[in-house]
Amino acid sequence: METLSFKITSDHFLLCLFLSLLWGITETTAASTGEATSSSEPPTTSSTSLTKTMTPPRDAEGFKSLAQTETSITLRWKNVDATFNYTLVINGEEIIVTATAGPEVKHTIRDLTNGTKYNFQLFTVFEYARSTGVNLTAVTAPPNAEGFKSLAQTETSITLGWKNVDATFNYTLVIKGEEMNVPASADTEVKHTIPDLPSGTKYNFQLFTVFEYARSTGVNLTAVTAPLNTENVKSVEQTETSITLRWKNVDATFNYTLVINGEEIIVTATAGPEVKHTIPDLTNGTKYNFQLFTVFEYARSTGVNLTAVTAPPNAEGFKSLAQTETSITLGWKNVDATFNYTLVIKGEEMNVPASADTEVKHTIPDLPSGTKYNFQLFTVFEYARSTGVNLTAVTAPLNTENVKSVEQTETSITLRWKNVDATFNYTLVINGEEIIVTATAGPEVKHTIPDLTNGTKYNFQLFTVFEYARSTGVNLTAVTAPLNTENVKSVEQTETSITLRWKNVDATFNYTLVINGEEIIVTATAGPEVKHTIPDLTNGTKYNFQLFTVFEYARSTGVNLTAVTAPLNTENVKSVEQTETSITLRWKNVDATFNYTLVINGEEIIVTATAGPEVKHTIPDLTNGTKYNFQLFTVFEYARSTGVNLTAVTAPLSAGGFRTVTQNETSITLQWDKVDDIINYTLGLNGKEIIVTATADIEVKHTTSQLTSGTKYKFQLFTVFEYAKSTVVNHTAVTAPRNTEEFKSVGQNETSITLQWNNLKKIFNYTLVFNEKEINVPASEELLLTQTISELTSGIKYELRLFTVFENVNSTGVNYTAVTAPRNTEELESVGQNETSITLQWRKVNAILNYTLVINTSMINVSASEGLDKVKYVISNLTSGTKYNVSLLTVFVNVKSTGVNYFADTVPSTVDSVHVTERSVTNITLMWHRMKNDWDYRLEMNGENRTILQSRTMDEVSHSIPNLEPGTEYPFRVITLFSGLSSIAYEGFTVTGIDCANGNWHVTTSSIQGTVRGLFSSAEASNTSTQINGSTGNSSVSFSGLYPGATYNVTLQYEKNVTTFEQCRHTVTIVPPYLRSSCEYSAAGYSMSIIWNKPEGIWTSVEVNVTGKTLKKLENGKHSLDISGFLPARKYEVSIASVSGDVRSDEPFVFSCLTDPRGVIAGSFFAVLIFAVLVCLVVFIFLKRPDIIRKKQFIGGSRQSKEKSKAIPVAKFPDHFYQLGVDENRGFSQEYESLIPVGTDQTRNAATLPENKPRNRFNNVLPYDWCRVKLDTPNPNGNSDYINASYMPGYNSSKDYIACQGPLPTTVNHFWRMIWEQRVKGIVMVTNCTEGGRTKCERYWPADSKPVPQGELIVTLRSERQEPDWTLREFRVKNRNNSEQRTVKHFHFTAWPDHGVPEGTEVLIQFRGLVRRHIERDGAGAPTVVHCSAGVGRTGTIMALDVLLQQLEKERAVGINGFVHKMRLSRPHMVQTESQYVFLHHCIMDCLQPHENTEENIYENTEENIYENEDMIYANATALREFPQQKNINYTT
Question: Which residues form the Fibronectin type-III domain (predicted)?
Answer without folding.
Answer: 56-144, 226-314, 396-484, 566-654, 736-824, 907-997
